Amino acid sequence: MEVDIFIPCFIDQVSPETGISMVKILKKAGVKVNYNPKQTCCGQMALNGGFFDEAKEVAAKFINDFNTNNYVVGPSASCIGMVRNHYPTLFDNSSYHLEARNLTKRIYELTDFLVNVLKIKNFNSEFKAKATIHDSCSALREYKLGDEPRQLLANVKGLEIIEMEKSDVCCGFGGTFSVKHEAISTAMAQQKIDNAIITGAEYIISTEGSCLMHLQSYIDKNDLPIKTIHIADVLAKNI
To answer: What angle do CA 52, 53, 56 make, to 5 degrees?
Structure first.
């Protein structure tokens, strides 16, 4: 099997090691990985900000960048959810109508792809730590991701998962929301991290890099005794 990997812009700029981890995992699964260096953003930030024409322009480029018949896999449910849920509307009755709908059928968030397409739940990973899980609202409510992350983490040697209270509540990032409503965004991050620290966890694990970026910034600013880590980086341990 061949897959085209999508590296979201914030992963590329802030945590490129997560993209590398995803490649390691897919290769461990026996998949041939293709990377198009011309790829950029999915257009989510522009769409959320109300810049529909600009979002459509970026989305058209995305479609052209992934104009193959391969699966497309990315480590971000919010970006994949953007493609699946909004591209058909953006390009309805346009020259990209069929291409957009074709792409929505073959683009997957990483953990969904591993569990439900490749049917692999164990990568013989080892990560000796106590951790809790943050379920991003985009993953749950837009992408409709289920318990795939927990299925994968259950097979990581040495990893103890301690569920936090309100794991499915928003972290407060929300893209431009964190800029326009800084005080609310910060309070939401504080609540999320307080709930995580109460568990005694050393790490907050999530499928969503943007959430982790937001939470880690709050952790660093306040010198708190916990860290964030993307699930791809956990699964890639010892691979």
So the answer is: 85
Phi, psi (degrees; rounded to nearest 5) at 128: -80, 100
Q: Tokens at residue 30, please?
A: 């026996």
Task: Specify the DSSP class assigned to residue 135.
Answer: -
Q: Write out the residue limits of the CATH 3.40.50.1860 domain(s) in the chain.
A: 126-235
**Per-residue pLDDT tens over the stretch 164-206:** 999 888 877 666 766 676 788 888 889 999 999 999 999 999 9
CATH topology of domain 126-235: Rossmann fold (3.40.50)
Q: How far is CA 72 from CA 51, 69, 117, 133, in A?
A: 25, 9, 12, 25
Three-state DSSP class for residue 188: helix
Query: Which pair of structure tokens corresponds to residue 24?
Result: 């390691």
CB 10 within 8 A of CB 209: yes
49 burial (CB, 10 Å; 0-12 / 13-18 / 19+) is: middle
Give the whole-angstrom CA distance, residue 215 versus residue 227: 9
Is the per-residue pLDDT at 120 higher than 80? Answer: yes
Q: How far is CA 94 from CA 99, 101, 146, 228, in A?
A: 10, 11, 33, 41
Distance CA 31, CA 123 (A): 13
**Helix segments in the chain, DSSP class H:** 9-14, 16-28, 44-48, 52-65, 77-90, 97-106, 110-112, 137, 148-153, 177-180, 182-198, 209-222, 231-235
